[in-house]
Amino acid sequence: MTDRTPGPDPELALSVRDLKTYIYANNRCNRALDGVSFDIHRGKTLCIVGESGCGKSVTAASILQLLPELSRIEEGEIVYHGAEGPVNIERLKRNGRRMRAIRGKEIAMIFQDPMTALNPVYSIGFQIKEMLLYHTRLGKRARHAKAIDLLRSMGIPLPEKRVREYPHLYSGGMRQRAMIAIAMSCDPRILIADEPTTALDVTIQAQIFELMDTLKREQGTAIMLITHDMGVVAELADDVAVMYMGQIVEAGPVGQVLRNPLHPYTRALLESIPVLGRGKNQQIRAIPGQTPDPYDRPTGCQFAERCRYRVDACAEMPPETQVSSSHRVRCWRHREFMADAAE
Amino acid sequence: QAINDNQLSDPRVRKAIALAIDMDTIAETLFEGAAIPATGLTSDPGNYPEGMEAHGYDPERARELLAEAGWDGSRVLDMVYYYPDQQTADFMAVVQAMLADVGVQMEYRLLEGDVGAQISGVPEDPVNGPAVVDWDLLYGARAALAPQEYFNRFAEGQMPTVPTVPEMLPLVAQVNASADPEVQRDGYRQMEGIINENVYILPLYYQQLYIFESDRIDRNGHPYGNEQYSYNNGIIDWTVEPNEDGEHVAYTNAAPQQFFELPWQNLGIWIHNKYVFDTILEGDPTLTPIGGELAESYELSEDGLTFSFTLKDGLTWHDGAPLTAEDVKWSLETAAQVPITQPLVMATLLRIEGGQAVADGEADEMSGIGIDGNTVTVRFAELDPNVLLSFSQFAPLPMAHFEGVDPLQIQQHEFWQFPIGSGPFKIEEARMNEFTTLVPFEDYHRGVAKIDQIIALPSADGDANLIRNAAANRADFGYTKNPVDVPALEEMEHMNVYPVNIPYTRMFWINQFPRD
Amino acid sequence: MLTYIARRLLTLIPMAIAISFLIYLGLDLTPGDAVSHMIPPDVIGTMDPERLDELRESLGLGKPFLVRYWIWITGVLQGDFGYSLAGGVQISKIFLDRLPATLELSCAALVISTILGSILGTISALTRGTFADQALTVVGMLGVSIPEFFFGLVAILVFALNLGWLPVGGRTLPGYDSFWDRLPHLIMPALVLSIMMTAGVMRYARSSMLDALSRDFIRTARSKGMPEWRVNLLHGFRVALTPVIVLIGFRLPVLIGGSVIIEQVFQWPGIGKEFLSAVRSQDYPLVMMVALFSVMAVLLASLIVDILTALIDPRVRLGD
Amino acid sequence: MQPSEPILRLRDVHVHFPIKGGVFKRTKDHVRAVDGVDLDVYKGEVLGLVGESGCGKTTLGKAILQLVRATGGSVTYHGDAGETELTTLDDAGLFPFRKRLQIVFQDPHSSLNPAYTIFGSLEDPLRHYGVRSRAERRKIVGDLLEAVNMRREAMDRYPHEFSGGQRQRIGIARALSIEPELIVCDEAVSALDVSIQAQVLQLLMDLKREKQLTYVFITHDLSVTEYLCDRIAVMYLGRIVELCDAEELFANTLHPYTEALLSAIPVADLDRKSERIVLEGDVPSPVNPPSGCPFHPRCRYAQDVCRTDVPALRPYRTAAGGEHLAACHLIDQPPAD
Amino acid sequence: MSDVPLNPGDAVRSPPRPRTRRDAQFDRIRDREAARQGTKLRGGRFLSKFLNNRLAVVGLVIFASIILLSLAAPLIAQHDPKSPNLRAMLDPPSAEHWFGTDRTGRDIFARVLYGGRVSILVGLGSALLSALIGVVIGVYSGYVGGWLDWVAMRISEIFMSFPQIILVLLLVAILGQSLLNLIVIFTLTGWGGIYRMARARMLSIREEEYVQALRSFGLGPARIAYKHMLPNALGPIMVNITLSTAAFILQEAGLSFLGLGVPMSVPTWGNILNAAQDLRLLENAWWVWLPVGATISLFVLSVNFIGDGLRDATDPSQQG
Ligand SMILES: Nc1ncnc2c1ncn2[C@@H]1O[C@H](COP(=O)(O)OP(=O)(O)OP(=O)(O)O)[C@@H](O)[C@H]1O
Ligand SMILES: Nc1ncnc2c1ncn2[C@@H]1O[C@H](COP(=O)(O)OP(=O)(O)OP(=O)(O)O)[C@@H](O)[C@H]1O
Ligand SMILES: [Mg+2]
Ligand SMILES: [Mg+2]
């Protein structure tokens, strides 16, 4: 970050600075996150988009330190701004008491695949009440009642009966709603949703998004929504961060980024998808090539070898540049694109 | 010269085999001295003709003989055996090597399945064969109650391996038809000579019987004898050191695993056969009949055809019921119908008047047995040389318990889960395969035994468990014939081992019949 | 549920009949029979073949194969298991005598191995990659690589003979009426028998636990801020338990037949030892019954496994 | 594109899978995966098949190729030699038609045999279809790879060395290897990242033009169908509920399900935020589908008739005068005659 | 999106996390990658994974050495394993007899080497044979189904409804004792497991799309099953072969212990180890049983290690 606008922001819920998380599986080092910075604000939705393997899930996992065992946060800061002041999450012990106090209570998370994210041998109610057990002082009955309430508010019919049922009796959409119920049970300040609808049908996806929207509006929850679907971004995001190979290449309010993309990758991405309603004659333009091997990342701009606008400078890593108070981009040539857009 | 196209019918070849085996060394090393190299079929030198000697070990001569006989070096002899223990396998390996040393190839195998049929099949033509049995050499044994048993196989049409030897036939008849020891001995001498000369059978070694006893037992002067059979070893006088609780408890082995065995088959092999059932006469340690046991007195007529005895007064079974002459008669008649009755005893029973008819199921009672009060008179249709011996081994059973039993299935009778006998000890508790306990029979006609309790565990000789039990002080007395057990027992400080000579010879049967 | 069990039990019958027929046929084709074992070979040679045939006839060995099978199977179906040929003892009595011993030994081993195996396996999985894990892995491997009778013999040598702590074998002695009196007899065979099983359960529990720990719901559980022990035990172990229970369920038949060798080593008067001697003496009615019994045990065990999994895993429903 | 002559004609196709259960493994029930489908596929067109997960798209695709056998109805192939009923042919009889019909699958991970090189995977069908010499097979495979924008050398490498997009292209090459007329693309791009998806879509379009192929394009992504397809069939619970030209479908949606589907799709266009119709509930199970119109439990217009009567797929006249088929009781347009 | 300056004082600073064992491991990996940037991993993933498993490599080395030594027995052993020397009974190990001599003065070293040939033949041979049968049937019937599958499944059910040891004893009783019979027996008892595993693998591979693709070309079922699907099931099959090899070798020893194994005239590991039944030898002549016991255990251990390594290497879900 070069230029930062000073002044505290009461709505700031979480800030991530220059986060580097490496994964050491298979005796190799995968620099899954290589300098990621962003902020999450209360009552706002930050969408993180990017292709498979670009590090979206690792980002989410880093925030709650739910990383795979063979991995480590190398550098950077994850600061959670809670009621009791800021906490440097990356310094907490992974499964220590303080980290656990944040998980679920302050920051909750829902996962991509509702089919596997719930424990099949416990009832839905049990899995909700478990969360209440650790983060509230509610008694047994109260917990049960609260679990039923939560299910009801997620729009699950017959919650009194459903609360005793096991996950396999739930459909995918219902499971994801139960997941959200678990996540929302302690009124967290931040909800991290890692591709919550990828495994679901569009009609069900619409139901889930409706639910999340309500939460954001009614509870002021800060939402970090991970997706790879530009459509979702356009519909739900307040802010968007576009990731590519472990870095955020462009970030800013959704209007600015989608209308006026400054990074060639964002542009290419937007050009490569058919958009509903544009008819049969729309032009789509494929991005040539493929993402580099994560174990063998280029040294310079990660996108360079697939980029139409590549120049020699791209052999070196471009810095993140703040192009407006809220819009930043990581490209050597962003000024040219800004000029283009201005025309 | 070979008498048929099987080279083994050539006495030179058989002799060579005998000469190739260094039995002295084997007995000394592999058997650790627990076997006596054999000279003749019987172990009593009095049965040998003048100058008869063992073949000894002479591989040089063996090779010469084989060369003379034109032995086909490519032939692989097929040796079979039926003892599944390790030592037998070791012995086979040694014999294999020794035979190979003189140029005779041999492979050995353990017989499986119907062993009896595989070793005793007799050719229809007892002279020319072909052989019924499917092997060249058999490592087997002969355990006899009386010496005749060693030779009876040489009777016409009895031998699975040797074409009829005409000169043997009258000799076999001679030893069976006379009760005169001199006449019999003469027959034995001649037969031993013929066999030794022609190597019809190759006696290897005499097995001894080893009585083991712990320091805690005191026989109080009673003798050690052939424990495989019934003899008077004075058990009622034995004492045992008290254990911590002050009880006089002695451990032994050979407890039943599923059922108690009928005492008519193996007369003394199981502890219960010896101590639970009394026999009519009693034998000394060499099994020579010396007096009555159940019988107060007995008498064998001059011609040997009438045998009578009187039972002691007031004899009872362990359950208190009186032991009567009726019981004895019934037992004799039933035993004749039981196929597994000891062969020598069976021979005696069949020679009783009407005995054969009862055995064949043509009659229920033997006409030759008469009862008068406590006196039983047995009349024989033909002379039996072993009457006294048989009666010293024969134990009557309580008839009342066997009402309506099929003699063929007598062993399957419930009685054998908890037998009632007449001996010095009665069964207290019988848990099959776990233990059997015996306690003195308080009404025993010779007084009450001094040992308070005998605990028998279900290990048998040759079973590694015997040694383990002995090492753990759980075997105070018993016997074994297994040479492997002997050194192990001898090594234990608290155990004493007493060898006893018994008529038991291990030998090779050599199949001379042509095989196809 | 009950109808399901009843149905399953019904399906066992044709299976058991088919199997029994095959065994009967197989045994019938083997040379020799019980008679050839009832009489020592030294003696049998001198016996009159006619008498042997009589004996065979009286034991029912002379009838044609199908007739014998028919008599046998109808008897079994009516609850008459027949008699051991050797001693004429009712087979049901033999079972009643032997089964407690076998069950005592195998249950002890099963309990020891289950508890020890799942605890060690879980520890091993939770400390994966560390020295403790590797040590447990190697020890577990050793446990399944050393012949069990070898363990048994060495144990007898050391603990019974050299140290004199435990009896060499057997199950009981006169006057030992309570379980506690007999306990010293049980310790060695049970421990030796459980070594191999423990090692097996341990390795299985480890991989099952690792599998459970790699599942997504573990991450969900962590994301709730629960302490590690709860994540590992309530979520990990609970899920890992299902396959371990299945494994143990399939081990249940060991309760009947799996301890043949150990029973032999320790003179334990169980079914296994009985089976061995029945096989050796070609006592077919007994062999048949033990075989059939153990087959039924396996089939029942698989039923029990199904029921157990249905009980502990809510996803599994017994088909009805 | 105007309908030319049909290449394939499906009439009342049913595919029911038995559900076996119980101790005796008896059939307890049926999954009505495809439950009465009428469909014509015309030469040279791209027919889109959309619908939610489990509605029977894949099954229908496989039923076309006889990879699953229809339990009812007919699938006729219209070739130069006239019409052939495929459902009654055995394996040998099908052999000549296998050459005409091919399929490309969804999952780039399981669509290639990991144990063989690309050549190893592709040569067997060629050999099966009579290319005897290895050199010739190598040449054909090389040409195919080039046709899908890959290098010839790729044929000697193993699948795990390729990215998802490349594998998908290899899958297409394999389908092309025997020069089929019709290719069923079963979610051929669904598993790919958006940036790769476009590559494959373009490849498919190029190939179609070059080789005069016909596609049945199965997907759940309506934006892709709109871009790619000439006609679109919307499936719901084993039935086709709407079928018409692509433009017509988006311009004049007739069926309430299609309507909801269209509105539920998030569109990457900030200027086009339409009202979202959120459907209640889940897709019902095909084991016991609802009575009447299968969609009625989730339909906001549902009326009594919908609960009892199964609506037939009836033609309506489009604004442009074409044909628009829909299965709904409540369409207030006059049906075409 | 506005950025907040982060003053170090703002955040509640907890002390930096203490370094752990893992950290050291990670640093090593990073350093190594930094040192030779760009060099690719050599060899297949499978091989490298297998070779990374230290225990598996150790296992492979032991396995290969024992097999080589056994094969080269005539070159290495200075004595004939079958020739007794009664004057050299139970000699302790010496330069002349490396492992000493047994009760008949045979050289135990030579016996162990030659015995290894038979034992390994029995173990590996039966495992391979049962794998062959199981795979040939399982692969086809798993893919095609139909009556063949039904029949094979029923037969395997019958074989698998016996506790292993009971079935083996039963078959020994039926077939009799010989080297060949033992292999047949083990094969009979072992094929079912491999058959079911191969079948289950086929059932899951059958759903893979490349199989569907091949079907859409009209390729014959045998060709699809054996040529295209089988190679993908080889991993678990190999694991299974190693595990059955280990099991069979142990079983051979167990059967020899019961006196029902390979005839005693043939030296096998089990037959040699059988000497340990003799308490005296167990106590006083350790060389008679320890070397051979160790060899069996070591060999089985090595096979188990290899099996474990294979399992890890072929299991795609395993990371690390
Ligand atoms: N458990 C893990 N073990 C090893 N590598 C991992 C693991 N999880 C993620 N990675 C690696 O980290 C990198 C980033 O992965 P990440 O899961 O964050 O991607 P993503 O953007 O969430 O992708 P997707 O859209 O597929 O979920 C990838 O190179 C991936 O291979
Ligand atoms: N072999 C089969 N046996 C039984 N049921 C099957 C089988 N194949 C598919 N089904 C069922 O048939 C229904 C339709 O399946 P199909 O795969 O055709 O749906 P789809 O529309 O392709 O779904 P998706 O979008 O998830 O691929 C589903 O309910 C499925 O569970
Ligand atoms: Mg992800
Ligand atoms: Mg599908």
UniProtKB/TrEMBL annotation, chain A:
Annotated membrane topology: Peripheral membrane protein
GO terms under biological process: peptide transport; transmembrane transport
UniProt organism field: Oceanicola granulosus (strain ATCC BAA-861 / DSM 15982 / KCTC 12143 / HTCC2516)
Subcellular location: Cell inner membrane
Family label: Belongs to the ABC transporter superfamily.
Statement: the UniProt record of this protein carries the keyword Zinc: no
InterPro entries: AAA+_ATPase, ABC_Ni/Peptide_Import, ABC_transporter-like_ATP-bd, ABC_transporter-like_CS, Oligopep_ABC_C, P-loop_NTPase
Record-annotated ABC transporter domain positions: 14-270
Gene Ontology CC: one annotated term: plasma membrane
Any one Gene Ontology molecular-function term assigned to this protein's record: ATP binding
UniProt name for this protein: Oligopeptide ABC transporter, ATP-binding protein
PANTHER family linked to this entry: ATPASE AAA-TYPE CORE DOMAIN-CONTAINING PROTEIN (PTHR43297:SF14), OLIGOPEPTIDE TRANSPORT ATP-BINDING PROTEIN APPD (PTHR43297)
From TrEMBL, chain C:
Membrane topology listed for this record: Multi-pass membrane protein
GO cellular component terms attached to this protein's record: plasma membrane
Segments forming domain ABC transmembrane type-1: 99-305
Source species: Oceanicola granulosus (strain ATCC BAA-861 / DSM 15982 / KCTC 12143 / HTCC2516)
Family per record: Belongs to the binding-protein-dependent transport system permease family.
Broad class of where this protein is predominantly found: membrane
PROSITE patterns hit by this protein: ABC_TM1
BP GO annotations: transmembrane transport
Record field: transmembrane: 9-27, 103-126, 138-166, 186-205, 239-266, 286-312
Compartmental location: Cell membrane
Pfam name, any one: BPD_transp_1
Identification of the protein by name: ABC transporter membrane-spanning permease-oligopeptide transport
PANTHER family assigned: DIPEPTIDE TRANSPORT SYSTEM PERMEASE PROTEIN DPPB-RELATED
Keywords: Cell membrane, Membrane, Transmembrane, Transmembrane helix, Transport
Signal peptide limits: none
UniProt entry tagged with the keyword Transmembrane: yes
The organism's taxonomic lineage, starting at the top: Bacteria, Pseudomonadati, Pseudomonadota, Alphaproteobacteria, Rhodobacterales
TrEMBL record, chain D:
Domain ABC transporter: start-end pairs: 8-262
Topology with respect to the bilayer: Peripheral membrane protein
Any Pfam family hit: oligo_HPY
Signal peptide per UniProt: none
InterPro entries from the UniProt entry: AAA+_ATPase (IPR003593), ABC_transp_ATP-bind (IPR050319), ABC_transporter-like_ATP-bd (IPR003439), ABC_transporter-like_CS (IPR017871), Oligopep_ABC_C (IPR013563), P-loop_NTPase (IPR027417)
Subcellular location: Cell inner membrane
Keywords attached to this entry: ATP-binding, Nucleotide-binding, Transport
GO BP terms in the entry: peptide transport; transmembrane transport
Ranges annotated as spanning the membrane: none
Protein's name in the database: Oligopeptide ABC transporter ATP-binding protein
Species of origin: Oceanicola granulosus (strain ATCC BAA-861 / DSM 15982 / KCTC 12143 / HTCC2516)
TrEMBL record, chain E:
Domain (ABC transmembrane type-1): residue spans on this chain: 116-307
Gene Ontology biological process terms in this record: peptide transport; protein transport; transmembrane transport
Cited InterPro entries: BP-dependent_transpt_permease (IPR050366), MetI-like (IPR000515), MetI-like_sf (IPR035906), OppC_N (IPR025966)
Segments traversing the membrane: 55-77, 120-145, 165-194, 237-266, 286-307
Subcellular compartments: Cell membrane
Record carries keyword Protein transport: yes
Top-rank taxon: Bacteria
Pfam families for this protein: BPD_transp_1, OppC_N
UniProt keywords, alphabetically: Cell membrane, Membrane, Peptide transport, Protein transport, Transmembrane, Transmembrane helix, Transport
Region Disordered, annotated ranges: 1-22
Membrane topology: Multi-pass membrane protein
Keyword hit for Cytoplasm: no
Entry GO CC: plasma membrane
Family label: Belongs to the binding-protein-dependent transport system permease family.
Protein name: ABC transporter membrane-spanning permease-oligopeptide transport
Lineage, highest ranks first: Bacteria, Pseudomonadati, Pseudomonadota, Alphaproteobacteria, Rhodobacterales
